Inverse folding.
């Protein structure tokens, strides 16, 4: 009989719901939970936290999540892997250990560092991955840069008996691949040793495909399901169950969820997630293997079970992706609404009044973004506007204006252009929102970096609480 393990999805983003994870632990028979807390936007948020407090910079939801789930995890021997360390994995580890110690809980907590590559970028000068811009254009404004690590340091942490592994920027699917590599003794493609065979590459590709299916929590089990009409058939989303993968040592996987939970695992929900955020299905790059999704086979077995087979693997890429953040000016935004009659016409008139004031006051800015929520904010120029007679009869129209500028004083002053229109502008009834809100913008800098600049600096620290 083939050995198999069950890995459950944790969070899919910073602030996601943890209650479905409890269902997977208590009723799903999982041995591992892998939790993805990071996105490029998240790192920008964490950078602002870190600027305010040097002990922060990690996804703070990891602490309440573990405090709620650890008793059930410990009772069942479930291990937890996450990238909630963000820009400060050591800080996250220290916070978890301190909270566990205060409760008298015993756990072995591992922290993975080495993804921070900001000190190296001055010499490396990586061009922008998509538009080729020179690094020199942002060099003095860079505030963070992190490489996407692979499964190896997580595997090493698990081999040292870690119950909880906290990393920084690790490729999302690698969080799920690592437990499989650890449990089944699969080889990774390090430079030492003979090259991986095709069978070994295909196993890693299967593991990566599993990770890709589970990394977005409820989106892998019917949440955010966009198929026309079919979304109505997804049951009980209020109690959705996150996906679980039962994976065999040969890589074959069964995608399912905890019994009694809402959501749906079927061919359609699984294939939608399979293609999520995939640019080239034949070359889905990760630090550990290049996955060819075009050979994947999905077999709907019914009763919330889908079999995954057939993934093809190719040798890992020579370079790692990195994501950096740089100071990119400031923004301010204001929304306000107008009611019938002539709601849309009033909104347009108010927009022109704001533009006039910006010019009169010589408030320099790079962009003034305007949208009408409920009319064109979801699809932009692709959304056809209602006919003029229909626009004239709209019950209400909201307008959102976002100003982007290099001058903080201009951003801070944007909201002051609006209050006087309460009595002196077009008649309105819905009020202003955001008059006093301005914030610094962080631009994102995706690039590539040689492995040799990153991997020698990776460290795994394991400590008991």
């Amino acid at each position: 009989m083939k050995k198999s393990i069950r890995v459950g999805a944790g969070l899919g983003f910073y602030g996601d719901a943890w209650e479905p994870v409890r269902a997977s632990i208590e009723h799903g028979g999982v041995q591992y939970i892998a939790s993805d807390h990071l996105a490029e936007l998240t790192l920008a948020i964490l950078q602002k936290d870190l600027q305010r407090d040097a002990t922060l910079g990690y996804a703070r939801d990891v602490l309440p999540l573990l405090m709620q789930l650890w008793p059930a995890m410990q009772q069942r021997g479930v291990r937890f892997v996450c990238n909630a360390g963000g820009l400060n994995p050591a800080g996250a580890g220290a916070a978890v250990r301190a909270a566990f110690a205060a409760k008298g809980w015993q756990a072995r907590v591992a922290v993975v560092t080495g993804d921070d590559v900001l000190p190296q970028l001055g010499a490396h000068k990586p061009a922008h991955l998509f538009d080729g811009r020179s690094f020199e254009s942002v060099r003095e404004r860079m505030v963070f840069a992190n490489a996407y690590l692979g499964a190896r340091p997580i595997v090493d942490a698990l081999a040292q008996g870690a119950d909880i592994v906290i990393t920084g920027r690790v490729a999302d699917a690698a969080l799920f691949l690592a437990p499989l590599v650890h449990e089944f003794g699969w080889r990774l493609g390090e430079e030492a040793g003979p090259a991986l065979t095709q069978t070994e590459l295909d196993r890693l590709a299967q593991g990566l495909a599993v990770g890709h299916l589970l990394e977005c929590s409820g989106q892998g089990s019917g949440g955010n399901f966009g198929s026309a009409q079919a979304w109505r058939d997804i049951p009980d989303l209020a109690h959705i169950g996150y996906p679980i993968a039962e994976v065999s040592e040969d890589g074959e996987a069964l995608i399912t969820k905890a019994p009694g939970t809402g959501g749906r695992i079927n061919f359609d929900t699984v294939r939608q997630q399979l293609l999520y955020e995939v640019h080239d299905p034949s070359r889905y790059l990760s630090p550990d293997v290049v996955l060819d999704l075009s050979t994947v086979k999905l077999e709907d077995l019914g009763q919330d079970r889908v079999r995954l087979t057939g993934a093809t693997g190719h040798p890992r890429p020579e370079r790692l992706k990195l994501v950096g953040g740089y100071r990119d000016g400031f923004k301010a935004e204001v929304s306000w609404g107008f009611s019938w009659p002539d709601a849309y016409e009033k909104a347009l008139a108010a927009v022109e009044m704001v533009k006039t004031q910006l010019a009169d006051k010589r408030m320099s800015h790079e962009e003034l973004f305007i949208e009408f929520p409920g009319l064109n904010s979801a699809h932009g120029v692709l959304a056809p506007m209602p006919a003029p007679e229909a626009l004239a009869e709209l019950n209400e129209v909201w307008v959102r204006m976002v100003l982007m500028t290099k001058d903080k004083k201009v951003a801070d002053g944007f909201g002051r252009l609006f209050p006087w229109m309460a009595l002196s502008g077009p008649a309105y009834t819905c009020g202003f929102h955001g008059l006093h809100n301005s914030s610094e913008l962080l631009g994102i800098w995706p690039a590539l970096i040689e492995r040799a600049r990153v991997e020698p600096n990776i460290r795994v620290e394991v400590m008991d609480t």
